[in-house]
Automatic annotation (TrEMBL):
Keyword field: Hydrolase
GO molecular function: hydrolase activity
InterPro entries: Nudix_hydrolase, NUDIX_hydrolase-like_dom_sf, NUDIX_hydrolase_CS, NUDIX_hydrolase_dom
Named cofactor requirement(s): Mg(2+)
Native species: Candidatus Fusicatenibacter intestinigallinarum
Pfam families: NUDIX
Protein family (similarity comment): Belongs to the Nudix hydrolase family.
Superkingdom, natural source: Bacteria
Protein name as catalogued: NUDIX hydrolase
Ranges of residues in domain Nudix hydrolase: 17-148
């Protein structure tokens, strides 16, 4: 969790916060997606987190990717900006957020996979047809949009 959000939580407790996130969908050379099993809700999701004060969204995305996976993004491509009720979430600890998630695709990266012990239980690449059902709720909408694009590229294959 970002330092900024942690400081706000000291003031507002669990009340809803508008939270700006920067996220990265990593695709390998086989078109598979890197997902992480989160340690807070034990669901799968892509890499990402809150943008710090005065940090650019792209820098936040790169930082979160490196912190959570050990990978360095050499190039990011904007995938989309997601918001609304589908991204409203209450964390297992009771913190409530209304997320605005700026999601990037990264196909150009370097490094060796290494999970962040505090936040990540497991890192694994999945084909779009093998995406696990246990997805973290706030990433479901953007990830399903990514899956639909992969289906179109594959000629309409289904999950």
């Amino acid at each position: 969790m970002s330092d900024y959000i942690m400081e706000l939580r000291k003031i507002v407790g669990h009340r809803p916060l508008l939270q700006v996130g920067a996220s990265v969908i990593v695709e390998d050379e086989k078109g598979r997606i890197l997902l992480q099993r989160r340690s807070d809700n034990h669901c799968w999701g892509y890499c990402g987190g809150s943008v710090e004060l005065d940090e650019t969204v792209e820098d936040a995305a790169k930082r979160e990717l490196f912190e959570e996976t050990g990978l360095t993004a050499n190039r990011l491509e904007l995938f989309g900006v997601f918001s609304g009720k589908d991204l409203h979430y209450i964390y297992p600890n009771g913190d409530e957020v209304s997320n605005i998630d700026i999601v990037y695709i990264c196909r150009d990266y370097t490094g060796t996979l290494q999970k962040q012990e505090q936040e990540v239980e497991e890192l694994k690449f999945f084909a779009f047809s093998e995406i696990p059902a246990e997805l973290s709720p706030p990433i479901r909408k953007p990830l399903m949009q990514w899956v639909e694009l992969q289906k179109e590229k594959a000629g309409g294959s289904s999950l």
